[in-house]
Amino acid sequence: MTAPSAPRPPSTTASIAAAVMTTYHGQCACGQTKWDVKLEPDQAKHILCHCNTCKSLSGSTYTLNQIIPKSALTFTSGGESLKKYTYAGESGSPVHCYYCPNCTTHPYHHQTVMGDDKIVLRTGLLEGAEKFEPAAEIFGKVRWGWVKEVAETFETLPPE
Ligand SMILES: [Zn+2]
Ligand SMILES: [Zn+2]
Questions:
Q1: Ligand 1 center to residue 6 CA distance, Å?
Q2: Do residues 52 and 71 make contact, with C-beta atoms less than 8 angstroms apart?
Q3: Closest-lying ligand to the alpha carbon of 103?
Q4: CA Rg, the chain, in Å?
Q5: Which residue from 105, 80, 109 is spatially nearest to 28, judged by alpha carbons?
Q6: DSSP 8-state secondary structure symbol assigned to residue 54
Q7: pTM score, two decimals?
Q8: Using 50, 70 and 90 to split pLDDT, how confident is the model at 14?
């Protein structure tokens, strides 16, 4: 027996193809540095980094991040005054951290190993970030014992 033709559910591939970018606003603690960033829905999520450098830079147990195209980030105030701190990342390649010279808030960093087009945004500094879901956790091997897992965790970085 042949089923009668019924209305078909909307195609998921069509809705994925029509991903809409949303602009989020961020600013540093003192207000001197301000930025706008365009994120697709699957980028409006936090990647928790438990690495020891993030602990040192933030004075906390982990940081909140997302990898985005460099072109998605625009500084509307203070961008030309940002200072840069450079250290050797896990790969040995330089990581450049850009921070407000007045209050030290760190809007993003550039891992040179990722190439010139990708940067790592500190998602926790964006307006509305409290509504972003945790998408993954990296450097789980050095997670502090009392910090509970909230997303898929990788020992270091996810496989390529
Ligand atoms: Zn500042
Ligand atoms: Zn880290």
A1: 58
A2: no
A3: 1
A4: 19
A5: 105
A6: H
A7: 0.86
A8: very low
Residue reference for tokens 């500094």: 125
The ligand whose atoms approach the alpha carbon of 28 most closely is 1
Q: How many CB atoms are closer than 10 A to CB 153?
A: 16
- In terms of Cα–Cα distance, which of 34, 18, 29, 22 is closest to 72? 22
CA 102 to ligand 2 center in whole angstroms: 23
Q: Which among 157, 153, 108, 135 is positioned nearest to 47, based on CA atoms?
A: 135
How many Å lie between the centroid of ligand 1 and the Cα of residue 58? 15
Domain boundaries, the chain: 22-78+117-142
Structure tokens at 65: 């991040």
pLDDT tens, residue by residue, 81-122? 999 999 999 889 999 999 999 999 999 999 999 999 999 999
CA of 87 to the centre of ligand 1 (A): 21
* Ligand having the closest approach to the CA of 63: 2
* 105 against 15, higher pLDDT: 105
* C-alpha of residue 48 to centroid of ligand 2, in Å: 8
pLDDT at residue 37 is higher than 80: yes
In terms of residues, how long is the chain? 160
Q: What local confidence, expressed as pLDDT, does residue 91 receive?
A: 87
Ligand 2 center from residue 96 Cα (angstroms): 13
